[in-house]
């Protein structure tokens, strides 16, 4: 048996069939074999399309916006936007400077990723950014 099992649920009838036919037999067999199990249910994370659009938007912003006299990389802009979205905490670093404590975009739900991209679009509109990323990719 593998350590992890994933099923995607998109509507009630399909989910019910998948849980009865796929999940319950695995959980039952493991429990009968004396192994303890954890079943986790969570919203689906961001799509590949959302991720591709995110990086295109971050690259556009990195090329076109000076931030307090400096150019930031797309990765640095990602930290700026996720911090703004999540109202994240900042703590002193071990050897000086500061560290932003935050959420990885890979763990964001589709809705959170849509909200992040909406924030980026508003920021870009305010700063005159011309986005090359296609519209869409923000489906929640």
Notes on the protein architecture:
With 140 residues, the protein is mainly α. It folds into 2 domains: 41 residues, no CATH class; 80 residues, NinB fold, CATH 1.10.3790.10. It is built from 4 helices and 4 strands; from the N terminus they run H-H-E-E-H-E-E-H. The strands form 2 sheets. Strands 1-2 form a two-stranded antiparallel sheet. A two-stranded antiparallel sheet has the order 3-4. Strand 1 and strand 2 form a beta hairpin. The radius of gyration is 20 Å and the shape is elongated. The two termini are 33 Å apart.
Shape: elongated
For the termini, the CA-CA separation is 33 Å
Number of separate structural domains: 2
CATH arch. level architecture of the largest domain: Orthogonal Bundle
Low-confidence stretches: none
- How many β-strands, per DSSP? 4
At the first level of CATH, the class of the largest domain is Mainly Alpha
Classify the beta-strand content into a percent band: 5-15%
Q: Secondary-structure element sequence?
A: HHEEHEEH
CATH fold title of the largest domain: NinB fold
- Could you say which structural class the secondary elements and strand pairing correspond to? mainly alpha
- The Cα radius of gyration reads 20 Å
């Amino acid at each position: 048996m593998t350590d992890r099992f994933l099923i995607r649920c998109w509507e009630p009838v399909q989910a019910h069939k998948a849980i009865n036919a796929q999940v319950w037999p695995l959980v039952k067999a493991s429990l009968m074999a004396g192994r303890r199990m954890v079943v986790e249910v969570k919203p689906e994370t961001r799509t590949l399309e959302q991720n591709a659009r995110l990086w295109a938007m971050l690259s556009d912003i990195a090329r076109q916006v000076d931030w307090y006299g400096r150019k930031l990389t797309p990765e640095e802009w990602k930290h700026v936007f996720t911090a703004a979205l999540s109202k994240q905490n900042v703590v002193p670093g071990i050897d000086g400077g500061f560290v932003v404590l935050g959420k990885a975009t890979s763990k964001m739900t589709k809705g959170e990723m849509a909200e992040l991209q909406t924030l980026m679009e508003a920021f870009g509109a305010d700063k005159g950014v011309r986005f090359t990323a296609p519209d869409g990719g923000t489906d929640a």
